[in-house]
Amino acid sequence: MRTRRLSPGRILAWIYLAVILVVTVFPFYWILRTALSDNYALLGNPSSLLPVDFTWGPFARVLGLASAEESIAEGGSGATLDLGRYLVNSIVYATASTFLIVLFSLLAAYAFARLHWRGRDLVFSLFLAALMVPGILTLLPNFVLVRDLGLLNTFAGMILPYGLFSAFNIFFLRQFMLGLSAETEEAALIDGAGRVRILFGITIPMTSGPITTLSILGFIGMWNDYFWPLLVTTDESVQPLTLALAVFKQSSPQSQPDWAGLMAATLVAALPMLLLFMVFGRRIVNSIGFTGLK
Amino acid sequence: MTLLNSGPAPARDLSTGSGAPRRRPASPSHRGDGPLAWVLIAPALIGFLVFAVYPTLRGIYLSFTEFRVLTPPKWIGFANFQELAGDPVFWNSLRVTVYFVVVAVGLTVIAAVTTAAVLHRLTSSTVIRGLIILPFLISGVVAATVWSWMLDPQLGIVNAVVHAFGGDGVQFLTSREWAIPSIAFIHVWKNLGYTAIILFAGLQTIPPQVYEAGRIDGAGETRMFFSLTLPLLKPILALVLVLNVIGAFQVFDLVSVTTKGGPANASNVLQMYIYSKAFGQFDFGYASAMSLALFAILIAITFLQMRLLRANESEQA
């Protein structure tokens, strides 16, 4: 298949692929190019392919390193933005959510896959039903609930509603555990090991592949989450990067936004995902194909 | 349920495991399982009951109430739904949302199928597939911000390209006729690669012999795409289509960052309108009623999905 000559059709296909790739990747370059430009200089030369009047200024502005005067001099709004704090919030939110949801899903999956108990099939089918029901209806009532619990503007309020239960994770892990041979576990049982020790000592290590997959996909989802944090947080001490960036964008002046600063902020918000991609790229690609399951 | 065996280790373990004979005489070791099982599922069960079941029921209840958050909800029967039926902004939002879904999902799926097929026939490069899913990794807020800049009427690079080809500048996100197509384009940009990779994984489950047989019968690439690839891909395609539709119906962050629903409600999608009713005007009862309407639409689509998938399963047998 690979050694065939280049037919016109294949050339056309390569051209199509090249166009898709350029359109996909170009905006990432454009973020970088704009973020390294002087905002005033951009006005005069908006479509130069290289940074215009190269400067680190935009990054200094959004990382809270520039004074108001410096910021205004370079075309910023003068409002100081300190993305560092939001970065920490995002890391806490995404890491804690991902850790909890994967851990709790593992525990539940084990109970469904390996233990025999009354009510198992009933509870499992209820959980499965949740897989089919769209979550849209729960957003507003969950906000009211979190407010009633006094958890607005707390990490607990952000994490708990979607950090305890994931029908998809449980189903996915249970399917995998059912496929594992139970012999090692049975042997350990006969040797007198307890169930909990077997779970953490044998089953979880054998499930490391799917755990990594779900952790990566979960982390990406939580890192990029916008709507839920928007509902339950108003205080910048807990708000994630997505919110800070959205506010920064929405409050930019209509006439002359600080595009260079905005792109610097965008890059800061996207950078951890891009790093994750460089480390786990192949794994992420395979994970997406692998989870094409519902 | 379809599980795409795209190649990573877990898939292989699955197949060998299920082939082994299953030992299932309730061995004595299972006797004390009950209490431990309930401890293990407790967090998930609490999450399920408190943050999924209860809010769903409460959401339905709130739809029938006048509820302004600070005072307790007051039962008003179907009044919210009557108001909804006569609310021109709601109908506009529904129309705008459907318009968005049709354009965004239509383009995403067509481009993703093409991309997946091209990838499948041309290259197995993980680097190319990796680059294609890059936009999936970033948030809608990031995507919306960078495209706001690129689509800026005066300074944006896209209009610079349009001018270079002799066209007139387009008011992408600031005009009524272009707002939704522009946001739909950003949505396609963000979701194309992800969708293509899922379809690509589906394509890899098609045995190469199928294509060899096709070639022996004298079929060209185009013919094979329509007569072999598409039909074999149909179950996954149905799934991808419906998941995309459900996702697109709930579009929010792209709109919130680019246009905030404007100009003049031209991009005021349902989720945006629900949000502004609830958190702009604190009309939670009315917002809940709209959520319930959107919920009903999505349930109908999910139901349709099940029908589609089932139809395809029987076709394959």
Automatic annotation (TrEMBL), chain A:
Residues in a coiled coil are none
GO BP annotations, alphabetical order: transmembrane transport
Q: What is the lineage of its organism?
A: Bacteria, Bacillati, Actinomycetota, Actinomycetes, Glycomycetales
Protein family (similarity comment): Belongs to the binding-protein-dependent transport system permease family.
* Entry membrane topology: Multi-pass membrane protein
Q: What is this protein called?
A: Carbohydrate ABC transporter membrane protein 2, CUT1 family
**UniProt entry tagged with the keyword S-adenosyl-L-methionine:** no
Which stretches are transmembrane? 12-32, 91-112, 124-145, 151-173, 198-223, 259-280
Q: Kindly state which keywords UniProt assigns to this record, in alphabetical order.
A: Cell membrane, Membrane, Transmembrane, Transmembrane helix, Transport
Q: Name one Pfam family in it.
A: BPD_transp_1
Q: Which InterPro entries does its entry note?
A: MetI-like, MetI-like_sf
- Per UniProt, residues of the ABC transmembrane type-1 domain are 87-280
Species this protein is from? Glycomyces sambucus
Any single GO CC term annotated in Swiss-Prot or TrEMBL for this entry? plasma membrane
Q: Report the locations given in the UniProt record.
A: Cell membrane
UniProtKB/TrEMBL annotation, chain B:
The UniProt record lists the keyword Membrane: yes
Keyword Transmembrane present in the record's keywords: the answer is yes
One of the record's GO cellular component terms: plasma membrane
Q: Where are the transmembrane segments?
A: 36-57, 98-119, 131-150, 178-203, 224-249, 284-304
Q: Where is this region: Disordered?
A: 1-31
| Cross-referenced InterPro entries | ABC_transporter_permease, MetI-like, MetI-like_sf
**Localization (cell):** Cell membrane
Cite the entry's keywords alphabetically. Cell membrane, Membrane, Sugar transport, Transmembrane, Transmembrane helix, Transport
| Mode of membrane association | Multi-pass membrane protein
Residue ranges of the ABC transmembrane type-1 domain? 90-305
The Swiss-Prot or TrEMBL record describes its family as follows: Belongs to the binding-protein-dependent transport system permease family.
**Name of protein:** Multiple sugar transport system permease protein
Its source organism is Glycomyces sambucus
Lineage at the top is: Bacteria, Bacillati, Actinomycetota, Actinomycetes, Glycomycetales
